[in-house]
Amino acid sequence: MDKIFLSPPHMSGKELSYIHKAFDENYIAPVGSNIDSFENEIQKYSGASHVLVTNSGTSAIHLALLLAGVGPGDIVLCQSLTFAASANPIRYLGAIPYFIDSEEESWNMDPDLMEDAILKCMTGKAYQASASYLDLDQQLLEELSKPKKPKAIIPVHLYGMPANMERIMKIANKYDIPVIEDAAEALGSRYFGQMCGTFSDYGIYSFNGNKIITTSAGGALITTKKENRKKAKKLASQAREKELHYEHKHIGYNYRMSNVTAGIGIAQMQVIEDRVQKRRENYFRYRENFKNVPEIQLQKERQGSYSNRWLTTILLEKGDLEDNYMDFIFHALEKMNIETRPIWKPMHLQPVYKYFPREISGVSQRLFETGICLPSGSSMSLDEIDFVSEKVMSLLAQKERVIS
After folding, report:
1. Residue 404 binned pLDDT confidence (cut-offs 50, 70, 90)
2. How far apart are CA 186 and CA 203, in angstroms?
3. What is the value of pTM for the model shown?
4. 8 Å CB contact between 78 and 347
5. Using one digit for the tens of pLDDT, what is the confidence trace for 21-34?
6. Which of 2, 287, 307, 400 measures 20 to 30 Å from 197, CA to CA?
């Protein structure tokens, strides 16, 4: 069988017409009608107030942090169970990420731990949450010892599963802290009917090659205020002033999306609901296939949540199996031409962030150690899903031989 990829791009067939349009109009630049149309399509679909497309979801997070006023020494609460792009822009600005563990139900930011972290920050005790604050940079340690409110909060809708936004926003509003909603994996996901990415001051989407729709590379910043979009656009365009010559009063960035790739996005937005429905179909097929396998658990939707099921993820009950059993599973599937990967390694376990503050319950580490992301592309056939399911169950049946 040909290789079954984790989440390959799935074209609608109409992308080339918009790419040709960009060439016909000779707008091979970060301006043009495709960009305007793509932003309008995202706005219409998500219900967002204002949209700015960017060259990546990472740059959109960076812009949101700048708009929130984050700077050197500020503390930003960030979900630990996520991709590094959620956390790295905090360090771009010299700010301090404070990692928050996951709740059991959604696998996303635990609101109770989030509030614990806020209170520690406000009483100057954030340094106590560092893995080894004696090894922390002295300047950072001094900042963590100062009583101050976190400057922003970054929850993530992991694998398309909505975070507990009702509680997160209630706590954030209580302490008047802006929220930057990382919905990079969650375009099309809803929480009590509202699109993820639109609950807070700022939202983020990603159109990387493996996302539910793609522009090959790209992202979007969602804002609630027209003025914030205007500021973000200026910052994303090297902060150039309106002069005939090139005038710069602020540091800017080259973060705009190309008019060519925006054309891909227009065609992709025309099939977004089809892609969501197919990913959900994949999940339900996997769930049916694994229903009589007690060792396998799937990520469930809490009441009010509607996940785009970007990736179907499972947890394996290892029991008395050896520590290397998960590696055995991944390597065995790879030999069968099936691409899988572990659930994200939590940020607080990453070497680059090992000394930074964290509120940890152990949930994210357990998910990382027992979790597998299964092939979930919207172009997958049901036969391919059945093939993957069969191979996973076959490997589980071999566990006695693995132990011996």
Report:
1. very low
2. 11
3. 0.96
4. yes
5. 999 999 998 999 99
6. 287
